[in-house]
């Protein structure tokens, strides 16, 4: 009976007091007043009775659901948990120390899980229903949430939360985590300040966006920065930042605004930097053309397993952009526009490393030629599964080194000495 009563109270609170939960903050007292009103209504309608102890227990459980995040509240607060994966109401995984672990936490049922989804969606313009059963949203702290519900998710609603790592803000933080070494850090900071054009590649969960956020902190505070994202994740600290977000189609299939459309519009906004949260399709060509026409210093993320894969993905995206263009022209655009590819990977032991910093050297036989400047050499995997390795310089001095000099950046060529 208590479980049924809890479900009825939750549903009626949502339907009758939805405006309360639309607000970013509300007092627990307001929730308790609403709870008591709803509970008294249900008791009167159904001629039932609950004890004061049961009433208090119900109130405490619903407070956690509505003010906090129910069963996953502690996981969201734990700074060591980097990802939470909810596979239906009874199976919740977390990523901690780079390892995925099945927790003992569960939801009461699908209804309680749906309420959590409702709570995530309430402050946003997004929704999920049978016509659009999946979406992405951001939490106030910058964590990204992917939601997919039945019938597409067969075993119940699935929610994947990639937490925003607020402890990683500067290059020193990445150095402490062992993401890269000091030479590479100094080089990347110099490249950002000199307005080199960089693309960060890597698989899902490899830390690309975190690294992008760190690099963006070294952009001059006087510059006008435009960010374009599907789901807002970047938190820039400069004063002159314009944040743009794509929009999904409504239930009638209308109103969609794509990354490509936002990118084209951003060029009319007098940007000094454009940061793309992710290159997904035809905006790849628009970005390259914009860089060639003077919009330098661009930073972007792309899903790819190697620097070479970045090239293949850019090829495919441009060929499917609807613009008639051949491969030779594509590679000339890439060679003219992109200076650096940064590859970041999550290794077998769960650690995240920048495994390649490669330059676009130029063209060879009509195709873009890549060349490693730094790379991560895996030497061994010990008995505990820990990856043992170190970063090495190849001895290559970037062809765009004069760009650093022209920007007044004094970076010694000695950091490129071969290991």
Structure in words:
It contains 14 helices and 15 strands. The longest helix is centred in the N-terminal third of the chain and has 19 residues, at 28-46. Helix 1 packs across helix 3 (28-46), helix 3 crosses helix 4 and helix 12 crosses helix 13. It has helices spanning 2-16, 18-22, 28-46, 52-67, 73-77, 110-121, 171-177, 182-193, 208-216, 259-266, 283-292, 307-319, 327-337, 401-406, and strands at 81-87, 92-96, 99-102, 134-138, 144-148, 158-162, 198-202, 225-229, 241-245, 273-276, 299-303, 340-346, 352-364, 367-381, 387-393. It is elongated and about 80 Å long. It has 419 residues and is of the alpha/beta class. 35% of the residues lie in helices and 23% in strands. It has 3 domains: 1-67, no CATH class; 70-164, Beta-Lactamase (2-Layer Sandwich), CATH 3.30.450.370; 171-416, Rossmann fold.
Helix/strand layout:
Layout: H1 2-16, H2 18-22, H3 28-46, H4 52-67, H5 73-77, E1 81-87, E2 92-96, E3 99-102, H6 110-121, E4 134-138, E5 144-148, E6 158-162, H7 171-177, H8 182-193, E7 198-202, H9 208-216, E8 225-229, E9 241-245, H10 259-266, E10 273-276, H11 283-292, E11 299-303, H12 307-319, H13 327-337, E12 340-346, E13 352-364, E14 367-381, E15 387-393, H14 401-406
Parallel strand pairs: 7-11, 7-12, 8-9, 8-10, 10-11
Antiparallel strand pairs: 1-2, 1-6, 2-3, 4-5, 5-6, 12-13, 13-14, 14-15
């Amino acid at each position: 009976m208590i479980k049924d009563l809890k479900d009825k109270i939750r549903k009626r609170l949502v339907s009758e007091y939805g405006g309360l939960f639309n607000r970013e903050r509300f007092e627990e007292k307001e929730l308790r007043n609403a709870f008591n009103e709803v509970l008294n209504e249900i008791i009167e309608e159904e001629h039932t009775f609950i004890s004061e102890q049961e009433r208090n227990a119900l109130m405490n459980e619903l407070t956690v659901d509505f003010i906090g995040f129910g069963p996953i509240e502690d996981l969201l607060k734990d700074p060591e948990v980097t990802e939470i994966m909810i596979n239906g109401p009874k199976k919740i995984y977390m990523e901690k120390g780079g390892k995925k672990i099945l927790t003992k936490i569960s939801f009461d049922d699908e209804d309680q899980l749906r309420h959590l989804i409702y709570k995530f969606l309430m402050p946003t313009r997004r929704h999920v229903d049978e016509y659009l059963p999946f979406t992405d949203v951001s939490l106030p702290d910058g964590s990204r949430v992917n939601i997919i519900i039945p019938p597409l998710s067969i075993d119940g609603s699935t929610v994947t939360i990639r937490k925003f790592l607020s402890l990683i803000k500067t290059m020193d933080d990445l150095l402490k985590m062992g993401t890269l070494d000091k030479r590479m850090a100094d080089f990347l900071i110099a490249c950002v300040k000199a307005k080199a054009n960089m693309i960060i590649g890597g698989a899902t969960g490899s830390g690309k966006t975190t690294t992008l956020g760190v690099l963006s902190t070294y952009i001059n505070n006087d510059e006008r920065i435009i960010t374009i994202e599907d789901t807002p994740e970047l938190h820039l600290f400069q004063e002159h930042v314009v944040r743009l977000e794509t929009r999904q189609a409504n239930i009638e299939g209308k109103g969609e605004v794509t990354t490509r459309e936002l990118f084209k519009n951003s060029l009319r906004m007098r940007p000094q930097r454009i940061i793309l949260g992710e290159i997904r399709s035809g905006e790849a060509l628009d970005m390259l053309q914009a860089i060639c026409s003077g919009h330098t210093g661009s930073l972007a993320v792309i899903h790819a397993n190697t620097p070479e894969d970045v090239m293949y993905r850019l090829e495919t995206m441009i060929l499917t952009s609807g613009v008639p263009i051949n491969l030779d022209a594509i590679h000339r655009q890439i060679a003219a526009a992109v200076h650096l590819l940064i590859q970041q990977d999550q290794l077998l032991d769960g650690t995240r490393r920048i495994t390649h910093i490669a330059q676009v050297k130029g063209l060879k036989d009509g195709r873009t030629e890549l060349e490693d400047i730094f790379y991560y050499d895996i030497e061994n995997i010990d008995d505990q599964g820990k990856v043992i390795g170190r970063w090495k310089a190849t001895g290559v001095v970037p062809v765009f080194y004069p760009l650093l000099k022209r920007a007044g950046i004094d970076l010694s060529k000695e950091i490129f000495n071969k290991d």
